[in-house]
Amino acid sequence: MAVTDKSVLYQHGTLSLLVPGLFEGTMTIGELLQHGNSGIGTVQDFNGEMVILDGHAYQVVETGEVHELTAEQSVPFATVHFDDPKVTTHETKLTKADVEQKLLTDYPYKNVFYAVKIRGIFSHMLTRVVQKQEKPYPNLTESTKTQPKFKQENVEGTLIGYYAPELFQGVAVAGYHVHFLSNDHSIGGHVLDYTLAEGDVSIQPFASLQQHFPLEDPAFLKEDFNYAGMSTSINKAEK
Predict the structure, then answer these.
(1) Mean pLDDT of all residues in the chain?
(2) pTM, two decimal places
(3) 84 CA to centre of own chain
(4) pLDDT exceeds 90 at position 232
(5) Tens of pLDDT along 31-70?
(6) What is the model's pLDDT at position 168?
(7) Residue 115 pLDDT more than 90?
């Protein structure tokens, strides 16, 4: 049954399943969008970075091109919510570090999941995009050794993503994990760095996390996860 509660964060798969290279799509975009109209993730075959805005799912591929995903395409891992910010403030001249610290300082949400959304003009934006993988899939560390990077100045667009408490490393990325898509689709992907020239910064905390597992995926069910090295692998690939 689809979740419509705006206080619920919905996640299909876990970030940890990407570590050994479980990149097979196990939920369709059509089904995923029943659980949220905003979010981030990756696509079948670990093929690029996904950005979900206003009920539309976009795939940024290694060439930098942006495609809208169809309902039939699938994802191994994604996190979504129904956009309903608790607070929105207009900010100017903030770096990535400024924004991240400001949200933790100004709001009492360091121990819960919350969504971050910034719509505005970025004087500097740096992203990267994972490359499509072929079967048999390599692990996360191998598959992220080469990641094309994209840089643009004075670009207008939307940053979307999440903060997760340290306790949930493996379920998600502990700390901030955000993606970007410009209004003209000229740049997007996993955000490495940015400077906000001017824009609206929104925060949406969640009372619940609904974790959905790929129960029909035999590879996931049979995998013996190496938890000892998992956090290191995630930090190398995602931060």
Answers:
(1) 95
(2) 0.96
(3) 18
(4) no
(5) 999 999 999 999 999 999 999 999 999 999 999 999 999 9
(6) 95
(7) yes
| Residue corresponding to tokens 């770096």 | 95
Show the 3-state SS of the chain.
CCCCCCCEEEEECCHHHHCCCCCCCCEEHHHHCCCCCEEEEECHHHCCEEEEECCEEEEECCCCCEEECCCCCEECCEEEECCCCCEEEEEEEEEHHHHHHHHHHHCCCCCCCEEEEEEEEEEEEEEECCCCCCCCCCCHHHHCCCCCEEEECCEEEEEEEEEECHHHECCECCEEEEEEEECCCCCEEEEEEEEEEEEEEEEEECCEEEEECCCCCHHHHHCCCCHHHHHHHHHHHHC
Q: Fold for 8-238, please state it.
A: 60s Ribosomal Protein L30; Chain: A; (3.30.1330)
> Domain spans of the chain?
8-238
